[in-house]
Structures are given as structure tokens and as C-alpha cells.
Amino acid sequence: MATIGTFTKTANGDITGTVKTLTLNVKAKFVPTEGDSERGPDYRIVAGTTEFGAAWKKTARETGRDYLSVKLDDPSFPAPIYASLVEDEGGEAHNLIWSRRSGD
């Protein structure tokens, strides 16, 4: 597991921060989606005016904690990045956590 980003929630519901890996260093914003689609994402993820991901609200079975299941993708990426956005212990910030999926 690796923390690849840190974010904070704004008053209007956006979640802003930075995604950082060895090859990526980008300011990003999670913007709540309009409407109530059952299967659609709850957030669109943008860098500037470019959308490069989406996130879905989930609840961890073991702990009952809410988190966002995140998928980042762009034509410049060799493969999508899957991660989880979780609130830190103090509730002040959110951490974007990546771990390699089994079979990758």
C-alpha cells in the first residue's frame, strides 16, 4: 500500500488535493456528480478542465467506514490506477491509497 495523494474537502463539497507518484504530480479535484444514477460515479475527477477519473461511494465491510473507490485513467497512462480515498483518523484530510491488485 502507498499513499499517492492527500486531499481536503471544501465547503461546496468538492475534494481537492494532489496525486503524486514517481511519474505523476497533478493537482486534482473530485467534483460531485449531478443526478442519482445507481451505477454511475458519485464524483468526477478533474485536473484543470480535463476529466481523468471517477469515484464511487463505498462502505468497508470490516470496519463500516465510508470511503471512495477511485479509478484514474488517461491515454498517457500504461494502465488505469485504482485506489481508495479514505478519511484520516483526525477527519481533517483524506488520503488516496493505492495497492497493487492481485494478478497485476
From TrEMBL:
Q: Which domain of life is it from?
A: Bacteria
Which InterPro entries does the protein's record reference?
DUF736
- Pfam hit, one: DUF736
The protein here is known as DUF736 domain-containing protein
Q: Which organism is it from?
A: Nitrospirillum viridazoti CBAmc
